[in-house]
Write a structure and sequence with these properties.
This is Caspase recruitment domain-containing protein 19. One of its GO terms (biological process) is regulation of apoptotic process. The protein has eleven helices and no strands. The chain is mainly alpha-helical. The protein has a domain at 3-97: Death Domain, Fas (Orthogonal Bundle), CATH 1.10.533.10. α2 runs antiparallel to α3 and α10 runs antiparallel to α11 (163-178). It starts with a helix and ends with a helix.
Length: 179
């Protein structure tokens, strides 16, 4: 994107109230007037620093004037803005677009935080509750044979749960099937 297009995009942001004060605008105009290459002539600098004209009008006229002059002039304006009002320069809408080239791109640092903000204990607790509910639903379903299928499931459980816990579960299931 050329600097003229960026300046056109940023014009509303820069001319809105309380963004740039009179001192900062004067510093920018003086820098554009005095620094090599000279962007503004002495007459133009006086015109854009005239305190009789409102700040909004002077700033709007300055930005339009720089756009007419070309890309190099707009680039020098951005350089002067960065030197004299760095925070405002960093908040420009065109700078935000340049920082994120693809608006659909996911910010991986933020996404990683969003996925990991609960920690592993929360994951294990949720997984345990889900596994317990699934086992409870499977075992308490009246249409299935509880003991036969439960033995098959719990037969593989020494890997997951201890042998004593498995025996208690099997005894409980057998007792439930008798009632």
């Amino acid at each position: 994107q050329s600097y003229c297009h960026r300046l056109q995009h940023d014009m509303y942001f820069l001319t809105s109230t309380s963004r740039l004060n009179e001192q900062v605008v004067d510093k920018i105009v003086l820098q554009l007037n005095r620094v090599y290459p000279q962007i503004l002539t002495n007459e133009e600098a006086e015109k854009f620093r005239n305190p009789k004209t409102s700040l909004h009008t002077r700033l709007s006229d300055l930005l339009k004037h720089l756009q007419k002059k070309g890309d190099r002039h707009c680039q020098e304006f951005y350089r002067a803005l960065q030197i004299n009002a760095e925070q405002l320069f960093n908040d420009l809408p065109s700078r935000k677009i340049l920082k994120t080239p693809d608006p659909t791109e996911i910010d991986t640092d933020k996404e990683q935080y969003m996925l990991n903000d609960r920690g592993p204990v929360f994951f294990l607790a949720c997984f345990s509750v889900a596994a317990g509910l699934a086992l409870f639903w499977y075992c308490c379903n009246s249409e299935t044979q509880v003991v036969g299928r439960a033995r098959r499931i719990l037969g593989f459980s020494p890997i997951i749960i201890g042998r004593h816990v498995r025996n208690i579960c099997l005894l409980y299931l057998e007792d439930m099937s008798r009632n």
